[in-house]
Every structure is written in structure tokens, then in C-alpha cells.
């Protein structure tokens, strides 16, 4: 059973999400929060699998709440998905860097929301190819001079190659086709790379690919 925490200051929004999620046989809403402070406190109490976090909330905004959750070692397995009105909201960009596993617009289709919740639990952080590529393009446009690539020293040549492909937005299946390997092999390379770099998920792997200079602006295909 996938346990979800809903964090949104609008009770009507929470009620809508709860009705959708609780109707699924493999998902349950474990708790709700109406502001960022309550979201952090409730996440620590319940340790849910996923937090659906509104980006703009009173007391403590969703970005700050996400940082507190993702930096808490006790919550290392909790995935945060940001909810926003605009896909490329500047706060969403910062949330990904802060450890959020992805983001959704609030008017997303119900099926996409359900897929997203299941996807982040399965380790697939970037929720939609189209949104992924827009996010990467935004990251590329804002990225600074890349840092030294010392962090990549322990990666094998194949792992660097796979990380670069993740960095330009390819899925495991697309990576498998590009490298002429099985999807399982591609997934294994991605997982090992994440473990070696201490990345929570694919979203942070994309960030690291840009920050290390392994992928640079203008490389989007």
C-alpha cells in the first residue's frame, strides 16, 4: 500500500485528491496538512511514501518544507512531489534542486496523478517526458559554470555515459535502445550511479549531471 500525505492550504483541493487516491486499491491518504510546518511535522510522524506538496502555503512554504523533509535522514525514503499552477514556476525549479522527486500541475489529469504517485515510489522521479525536457531546458538556461567533476571520479565510463543520457531526459527504455542493452541493464546502471553519487532519485541525477559539467546547456536533443 502506497501511503500519501497531502499538503495544501485549500481544503477543497485536499478533498479532491483524497477522493481520487483513496479510491485506488494500492494507495491510501495517510494524513493531511494545511501549511508547510504541519507538512514537515506530519511527515515526521507518519513517514509516508509520498508527499504531495503545494508550493505556496502559509507559515512555511512548500519549498522550505521540502528542504526540511529531504534533508532529514529519518525521512530519506519519503518522496516529495510538488504541486503548482505553472509547470515551470521558478520555485519548482528550486524544489527539484532541494530534493523533490518531481512536480505536477494542479489541473493534471487524474490518471497522470496516479501514475506519478506510483512512479516516484518506484524510483522514476521525472514524471513526464515533456515536462522533463522543459525542466532540463530551464535548468540549462539557468545553470552556472559547471563545478569540478571530482564527484564523478568513482563512476565507470559506462555509468558516466548513462548519467549523461539521464541528464538529457532519456528514460530507461530510451537509454537501453541508445546503448543497445536491455531496459533492466539500463535501470541497473542508473541505480548504481545514483547510489555512488548519493542521489535520491533521477531528478537529482539530472541536476548533478549539469552541475558537474557532464551535460552542458545546448546538448538537448
Automatic annotation (TrEMBL):
Task: List UniProt keywords, sorted A-Z.
Answer: DNA-binding, Phosphoprotein, Transcription, Transcription regulation
Keyword Cell inner membrane among UniProt keywords: no
User: Its Gene Ontology biological processes?
Assistant: phosphorelay signal transduction system; regulation of DNA-templated transcription
What does the record give under GO molecular function? DNA binding
Where 4-aspartylphosphate occurs along the chain? Answer: 54
Matching Pfam families, A to Z? Answer: GerE, Response_reg
Enumerate the spans annotated as HTH luxR-type domain: 148-213
The family database entries (SMART domains) matched by this protein are listed as:
HTH_LUXR, REC
Entry-linked InterPro entries:
CheY-like_superfamily (IPR011006), NreC/VraR/RcsB-like_REC (IPR058245), Sig_transdc_resp-reg_C-effctor (IPR016032), Sig_transdc_resp-reg_receiver (IPR001789), Tscrpt_reg_LuxR_C (IPR000792), WalR-like (IPR039420)
Q: Which SUPFAM superfamilies match?
A: C-terminal effector domain of the bipartite response regulators, CheY-like
Q: Which segments constitute the Response regulatory domain?
A: 3-121
- Name of protein: Response regulator transcription factor
What species is given as this protein's source? Streptomyces cupreus
Instruction: Print the organism lineage.
Output: Bacteria, Bacillati, Actinomycetota, Actinomycetes, Kitasatosporales
Amino acid at each position: 500500500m502506497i501511503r500519501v500525505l497531502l499538503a495544501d492550504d485549500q481544503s477543497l483541493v485536499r478533498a479532491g485528491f483524497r477522493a481520487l487516491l483513496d479510491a485506488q486499491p494500492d494507495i491510501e491518504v495517510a494524513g493531511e496538512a494545511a501549511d508547510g510546518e504541519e507538512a514537515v511535522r506530519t511527515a515526521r510522524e507518519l513517514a509516508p511514501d509520498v508527499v504531495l506538496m503545494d508550493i505556496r502555503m502559509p507559515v512555511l512554504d512548500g519549498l522550505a518544507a521540502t528542504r526540511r523533509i529531504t534533508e532529514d535522514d529519518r525521512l530519506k525514503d519519503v518522496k516529495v512531489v510538488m504541486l503548482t499552477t505553472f509547470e515551470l514556476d521558478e520555485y519548482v525549479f528550486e524544489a527539484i534542486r532541494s530534493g523533490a522527486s518531481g512536480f505536477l500541475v494542479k489541473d493534471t489529469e487524474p490518471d497522470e496523478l496516479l501514475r506519478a504517485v506510483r512512479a516516484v515510489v518506484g524510483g522514476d522521479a521525472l514524471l513526464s517526458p515533456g515536462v522533463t525536457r522543459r525542466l532540463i531546458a530551464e535548468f540549462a538556461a539557468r545553470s552556472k559554470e559547471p563545478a569540478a567533476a571530482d564527484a564523478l571520479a568513482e563512476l565507470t565510463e559506462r555509468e558516466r555515459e548513462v548519467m549523461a543520457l539521464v541528464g538529457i531526459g532519456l528514460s530507461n527504455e530510451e537509454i537501453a535502445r541508445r546503448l543497445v542493452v536491455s531496459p533492466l541493464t539500463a535501470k541497473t546502471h542508473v541505480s548504481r550511479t545514483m547510489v555512488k553519487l548519493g542521489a535520491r532519485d533521477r531528478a537529482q541525477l539530472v541536476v548533478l549531471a549539469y552541475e558537474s559539467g557532464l551535460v552542458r546547456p545546448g546538448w538537448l536533443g
